[in-house]
Amino acid sequence: MELNIESLPEHYMMTGKFENHDDFKNKLSNALSESKKIVQFRQKSIDNDEYLALVEIAETLCNQYECLLLLGTSANVFEQTNASGLHLNSKVLFEYEDRPVASHQVLSVSCHDLDEMKQAEKLGADILMLSPVKPTASHPELEGIGWKKFAQMIKQVKCPVYALGGMQASDLDDAKQSGAQGIAVSSFWK
User: Fold this and answer.
1) Which domain, by its residues, includes 166?
2) Which residues lie closer than 8 Å to 20 by C-beta, 6 or more apart?
3) Which residues pair with 124 in a beta bridge?
4) Within 13 Å and on the Cβ side, how many CA atoms surround 103?
5) CA-CA distance, 92 to 165, in Å (whole number)?
6) Taking burial as the number of CB atoms within 10 A of a residue's CB, which of 29, 63, 81, 163 is the most buried?
7) Is residue 56 part of a domain?
8) pLDDT tens-digit map of 103-160
9) Spatial separation of the C-alpha atoms in residues 19 and 24, rounded to whole Å
10) Cis, peptide link before residue 132, omega less than 30° from 0
């Protein structure tokens, strides 16, 4: 499924923990049946064959629900799939000089400051996530930037930005009022 900026959903979901393939399929199906979402599949501690098997399950479900599937992996692994796009975290962002995926594929990037946002735009990112907006349990050492600074920062880039960090479904209105495309959360994963 290709990116259509006008029809991007308000929810961007990162996959979470699961016990086996059936549990993964059930959790993803449940999350997608609730509302339209972009799905970012992230799994760091599994081997390549297992990763690709799970991506196949995700591709089938994301096609069924007509949503974008982005992979938080290397460009090399991404090329072995039929996913909609690649997601880069800020740790690898500056390793690239050119867009690591084709123009018809989606490039999503996590950013924490304006330099990272500008680098993502330089690479031709289609979607940004800016974090942390609020304090988050996963990174307690980081203070949230707050909605005011979030709004100021995203005005300096052209592509859609999702608010990340401490987000709950109830934060959607604040995010939209601040100029965000929507919110990025893992709490949809149940």
Assistant:
1) 7-185
2) none
3) none
4) 0
5) 19
6) 163
7) yes
8) 999 999 999 999 999 999 999 999 999 999 998 877 777 789 999 999 999 999 999 9
9) 7
10) yes
Bridge-based pairing of strands 161-164 and 127-130 is parallel
**Amino acid, single-letter form, for residue 84:** S
> CATH number of the domain that 47 lies in?
3.20.20.70
Residue 2: predicted pLDDT: 56
For residue 102, count other CB atoms closer than 10 A to its CB.
Answer: 9
Angle separating helix axes 48-64 and 21-34, nearest 10 degrees: 30
CA gyration radius, the chain? 16
Percent of the chain at pLDDT > 90 equals 80
Rounded to whole angstroms, how far apart are CA atoms 109 and 106? 10
pTM: 0.93
Residue 18 belongs to some domain of the structure: yes
- Residue 170 is which amino acid? S
Structure tokens belonging to residue 166: 């401490």
For the chain, how many structural domains are there in total?
Answer: 1
Does any domain span residue 190?
Answer: no
| Domain presence at residue 2 | no
The overall average pLDDT reported for the chain is 92
Select from 55, 103, 107 the least CA-distant residue to 85: 107
* Extended strands (E) in 21-179: 37-41, 69-71, 85-88, 106-111, 127-130, 161-164
pLDDT, residue 36, reads: 87
What tokens appear for 180 in the block? 């965000």
